[in-house]
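Dear colleague,

Thank you for sharing your sequence with our group. We've completed the structure prediction you requested, and as agreed, I am returning the results in plain text so they can be pasted directly into your records. Please verify that the sequence below matches your submission; if there's any discrepancy, let me know and we will rerun it promptly.
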Amino acid sequence: MRFPALLILSSLFISSCSWMPFVGPEESPEEKTMEEALQLSEQKLRKKISDNLNARNWSDAIVNLNAFESQFPFGNYADQAQLELIYVYHESTDFEAAMASADRFIRLHPRHPNVDYAYYIKGLSAALQNKGLFSDRSPIDATKRDVGSARSSFATFSDLINKYPDSIYAADARQRMLELRNRLARHEIHVANYYFKRGAHLAAANRGRYVVENFQQTPSVPDGLAVMAEGYYLLDLHDLAAEAARALATNYPQHPSLNEQGEFQYEAAATVNKGAWLSRLSFGYYVQQDPPFFDSRAIYNNPQAAIHGEEELPITPPQGQSLLNTLTFGLFESTDKAE
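Please find the predicted structure tokens below.
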């Protein structure tokens, strides 16, 4: 009789606890905010979103903007809410979400009057994607990092200025493209220096030629010519090496690879090849101490190139007209007022 009695008492205890507030899963703040937002009218929810943006309360703004799109997908301010969501994701440093939201807006509204804003924030988010909080003060060279996001940002800004050359964001996008182009070119020089270290002279020379052909007028072109001269020389292609060295001496006479007479200082081929063979035989344990290395940024980098006016151009989303105002050519506006 004891077992049935204990079973009955346990069941009664469990059922009596079901009404207690601390039993069961607790509702998260995001779920509570979403639940409250879904009960508001369009105008009241817009007022709440505006308050979130003014207070820079990005977490609540994200929840409320998603709720707005869910509740009023064809409402008066549906497009504006999507632009604001792109902005909020960017400001909250969720750059992946910002780019995804921008892509979605571009796909859904390719002819929207403010679609250039979506392109701009997408490119800006891609440029900042791999940039840490203290990147500007970090001793780590940013040009040695992965440049996949830089290429994506460059392509997006290129689309922006090609499709919308008169956009208010076009000038800033052009300046940012110059920075990105310099970064991509310098990354190629880093790769070429690495190939020299590994004894891959042809690969290094090809990287230098790629910089000269595709990144003209960047500070990395002098090093690109130097890479070509050294790489071709180590490959016994002396005519090509001399041609690259002449171009370097003619256009960049202050390059550190040139002596006072303007002659290129080639590395000793025997020393370089010996280091490469020892590296291969020792499976990378022995590395040549002084392989060819080119970095003339201290001479040719323009300190003004880093200035792009990011503080002068606001990135807040443009304020568009409501759907009713657009359809009636400005004759009518929504009359609902937030209480």
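Summary note from our side: The radius of gyration is 30 Å.

Kind regards,
the structure core
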